[in-house]
Amino acid sequence: MVAAKAGGDGYGAAMSSPTPFHEIPGGIKTSNRLGVMTIAGLIGGVIGFALSHIPGDGKDSTSLSELRHHTGLWFMFIVVGIGAGLIAGNSYLDGKPPSGESLLVAVPALLVGGYVSGYLAQMIFTSMLDDAALQSCADSNSSWCVAYAIPRAVAWLVAGGLGGLAVGASFRSRKRIQNGVLGGLAGGLIGGALFDVVPVIIGRDSEAASQVIGICLISTLMGLLISMIDTARTAMWLEVISGEMRGRQFLIMEQTTTVGSARTANVTLVSDRQIKEVHVTITQASGRASFTCAMQAPVLLNGFESHGANLSNGDVLRIGNTDLRAGFRQATGTASYPPPPPNGAGRPPDGVPRGRPTASDAAANPGGDWTSSRSNPPPPPGASRGPASAPPQPTSRPRLPTKPTNN
């Protein structure tokens, strides 16, 4: 039997391991992901609020261009703080620090995206206000003014969406970009809408309180919603069921996912010297998933050596000395292959195609001489890729980060 061969490559004792091939995988550990990313978003918001004081309050800005530039800097530092928190949270979930390559993408994305989001948000905010609205707010004795609230909510929505885009881009993932935009839009809208209401709620006309609550609402909702959308839009995941990383889950979100020991791999498996830097590549297409091994480094699929095959719900991959169970949101049925010959009689009859070992085959026939998919692995399905007038000039200029003041 191929899987039971002797040798020093870590595969010889595979069939003697107690890996339960027949178990059906549990779902994604949603509560853990939601909790980590929500707390990470909140911490990022606090960091962003602290950093936002670096460019000053900007109240001495007199021209519209100065206002836009200052608000751009203000949001840039906020987005950097939020992005740092979310990247740290995601790194915790992935079990690895961000790679230098990822940081080279993340830092410019956060700086540029944050500045652009604030600059455009200030443009929208001032364009939605006229002299009559400004005068009504100045004459009002209330610290809350509807003429400011609606434009601010719209402007923060735009800023949140663009900031979320920057945060998503820092992960170098198309889906994470989409999820970041959606989470940022929702968080920005709610945070902006509540900005002018906070003084009424807390009974204090405090600009700092409005800012920190608004910023933390955006960041917390961004972390929560990004993790919720990540989970809802993920069709496949891997769960480590042996070794030092036991219990950790990895969401397989992209069409092509690399698995290995390198920090640049999409799924990084540490503390296992048998794993190559890029050991396995997983491809998703047309609702199915398959894997291929790189550098002629085989793995065990449900206890049988394989260089590549389709993956089904519950399949167990042993890479090096680490077992991973594949899970699918919509369980994929195993392919229709002939059963192993009775009584360990050897190979299937001539002309019968050799099939992939399924989890049920490994459980039902742990000692049988079943064929390896090594000799004729089905090729991974081809990844099909789709096409992928002038603003008012008020005497007291309104700033997006601040509350209206009575003159």
From TrEMBL:
Keywords: Membrane, Transmembrane, Transmembrane helix. The chain crosses the membrane at residues 34-54, 74-93, 105-129, 149-169, 181-202, 208-229. Residues 331-407 are annotated as: Disordered. Residues 344-357 have a biased composition (Low complexity). The keyword Membrane applies. The keyword Nucleotide-binding does not apply. SUPFAM superfamilies: SMAD/FHA domain. Coiled coil: none annotated. InterPro entries: SMAD_FHA_dom_sf. This is Unannotated protein.
